[in-house]
Write a structure and sequence with these properties.
Strand content: 25-35%
CATH superfamily: Gcn5-related N-acetyltransferase (GNAT)
CATH architecture: 3-Layer(aba) Sandwich
Number of helices: 6
Shape: globular
Largest sheet: 9 strands, mixed
Radius of gyration: 16 Å
Length: 204
């Protein structure tokens, strides 16, 4: 387990602040999720009966997800902590193959789940506390792909509210709804796109 220094942007001031990126989600991170993140999401969803009024990931139980996949070597988890608060979580795996022409069949990293804390979402908090959590986690997925020799290739299925982020902010290729995966849109990133993503964000 290692910790790296990353930077998030404080929305109110626009200033960059130090944060810690952990390459393993620990019991301490899950305790923070349980005592702060989960209650904040529950409070936001209270009284909202129509499913469309709730964040699509509001039912995600990160404790159960991490406990289930922690023993499997092909799975990798990440957490971002800033000001002693849990800001983001990601779970990825490295046993899937790419579909895009030109890289079909090649190994890649697949992002199973990625989420930022409720207070970092404009649709929940109005003004996000920190910006850049999702971008840092995506950069981590690309770095994992590079470390494994997959040249930055990554993929994921996006919740509808996040489609624009992956398409427009991350530069991933939208391959359309996947009928085999709840009709969620499937996205892939090539090694060229990964290099552009890293260059634009000053990642060596």
């Amino acid at each position: 387990m290692t910790r790296s220094t990353v930077y998030l942007r404080r929305s109110v001031t626009g200033k960059l602040v130090h944060a810690s990126l952990w390459d393993t989600v620990t019991d301490g991170h899950l305790k923070l999720w349980s005592t702060t993140w989960r209650p904040a999401m529950a409070a936001h969803c209270a009284g909202r009966s129509p499913l469309q009024d709730k964040p699509e990931d509001s039912h995600w139980d990160w404790q159960a997800k991490i406990d289930h996949w922690r023993p499997l070597l092909a799975y990798h988890s990440f957490a971002i902590v800033c000001a002693r608060e849990l800001q983001g979580l990601m779970l990825a795996q490295d046993i899937m193959s790419a579909r895009l022409p030109g890289q079909a069949g090649k190994a890649m990293v697949y992002v199973e789940y990625l989420a930022t804390a409720p207070w970092n979402r404009s649709e929940i908090s109005g003004t996000p506390r920190y910006q850049g959590v999702g971008t840092v986690l995506m950069a981590s997925a690309i770095q994992l792909s590079l470390d494994l020799g997959y040249k930055g290739r990554i993929a994921l299925h996006a919740l509808s509210a996040a489609e624009g982020f992956y398409r427009d902010r991350c530069g991933m290729i939208d391959m359309g709804p996947d009928s085999n995966y709840h009709d969620l849109r499937y996205f892939e990133m090539t090694e060229v796109q990964a290099a552009v993503f890293r260059q634009e964000r000053g990642t060596k």
